[in-house]
Design brief:
single chain; 71 residues; mainly alpha; elongated
Length: 71
């Protein structure tokens, strides 16, 4: 988790487009909400939010790949 957030923060600071920066920040906040929910709850799939976590990680990776292609 720490590596995921460290990489997301590095990506946020590397991006130049304000829309892409907002998207990266939105993804990181939504991932932190999922993690906080998991700390309070028992399991990732209990509240059926596991798919949101994996979709957020996938969107963060795709944003990183897209930004590295446009540079």
């Amino acid at each position: 988790m720490a590596i995921l957030f460290a990489h997301g923060e590095k990506l946020y600071h590397r991006l130049k487009n304000p829309d892409e920066k907002a998207l990266a920040l939105t993804i990181l906040v939504s991932l932190s909400i999922v993690i906080i929910n998991c700390l309070v709850g028992d399991l990732l799939e209990t509240d059926e939010i596991g798919s949101l976590f994996f979709m957020g990680v996938a969107m963060l990776v795709n944003l990183d790949l897209y930004s590295s292609e446009t540079e």
